[in-house]
Amino acid sequence: xxxxxxxxxxxxxxxxxxxxxxxxxxxxxxxxxxxxxxxxxxxxxxxxxxxxxxxxxxxxxxxxxxxxxxxxxxxxxxxxxxxxxxxxxxxxxxxxxxxxxxxxxxxxxxxxxxxxxxxxxxxxxxxxxxxxxxxxxxxxxxxxxxxxxxxxxxxxxxxxxxxxxxxxxxxxxxxxxxxxxxxxxxxxxxxxxxxxxxxxxxxxxxxxxxxxxxxxxxxxxxxxxxxxxxxxxxxxxxxxxxxxxxxxxxxxxxxxxxxxxxxxxxxxxxxxxxxxxxxxx
Length: 281
Known about the structure:
Largest sheet: 9 strands, parallel
Distance between the termini: 10 Å
Radius of gyration: 17 Å
Helix content: 40-55%
Structural class: alpha/beta
Number of helices: 11
Oligomer: single chain
CATH topology: TIM Barrel
CATH superfamily: Divalent-metal-dependent TIM barrel enzymes
Number of strands: 11
CATH architecture: Alpha-Beta Barrel
CATH class: Alpha Beta
């Protein structure tokens, strides 16, 4: 069993740095895994070198060259798209899957997106099933997982998350569990983690500051980034214990807002993983 800390590239956004600079910083901090974010088309801030997101118009092997240069791997790709809009998400997800395969990322992480106000329950699940069925045809060919994350109005509950993650009978449809989003959505994140453990492929190590928890819990369905792991409300020793009990091997991808928070998160998680007697790769 191997559990390793990783870092979502959002940690470098506060410094207006490009992807390569963020990967270099992550490596110097001691991370061996990063979670890049990808987008389609062209985006001004990324083009100017002020944002870490990577356009899929670029060659994926160029991204891999950067990862290899700094001795890190991609734990997954952040590829969030609205599953209830197949005209957007089928092409986006299939492209992200092929991109992930080229850079060696085992999973693309997404959620259902914002639900249109006019869409009925029956419609939203049928449309998501269609989107996922189409994307999973590509995922199966390339051996890449789709990880559904608790992040919006349906997936923020464990029941809704599991319903989306089982809409299609495919071994490539899995769960990317985000502890912080589950907490903010009003769920018990530890029970949610246990209930989804059989589908886990990737975990977002997002902690929530106590003040934010008091102000926002039950009122929002998630947040882009959290605080440093160990500074917030999530009990990471309990989380690692659940993962060990479930036999999970994979990456705890930290989602925080600054390089300093990334440094403290790595130190905190490494201490817990070592104490649990789990190998880190």
